[in-house]
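Changelog note: in this version the structure field was regenerated for every chain. One regenerated record is shown below for reference.
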Amino acid sequence: QVQLVESGGGLVQTGGFLRLTCAASGRTFNNYPMGWFRQAPGKGREFVASINVSGGRTSYADSVSGRFTISRDNAKNAVYLQMNMLKPEDTAVYYCYKDTPQARYWGQGTQVTVSS
C-alpha cells in the first residue's frame, strides 16, 4: 500500500503563491511517476501536472503552464507543486497521485482558495 498526504493549501489573494507538498509513505521502495489533479466545486477532476521518476520530464495543463512548477525529491519520497500568479479559477481541491504498476494511488486532497 502507498499512502499520500498533501499539505500546503490555504487561502491566498489573486496574484499570490502557494507551495503544495505531497509526502508518500508505505510501500515506496520504488519511485514511480507522480503528479497533481484538481477538482473545483461542481466540476470534474482535471489534470494539473505530472513528473517522471527522474524528474527530468514534466507535463502541465495549458491553464497552469508558465505559472506552476512540479518537482520531486526521491530521497524524501515527496513531490511538490509551486503555484505562482494564482487566479480565482485555480480555486479547487488539489490531489496528489502516484502511478505504480498495480494501481494509481491518491491523496486525500488539500484545499486551495484564491480570492479576487
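Spot check on this record: Residues 15 and 86 are 5 Å apart (CA to CA). The chain has a mean pLDDT of 94.
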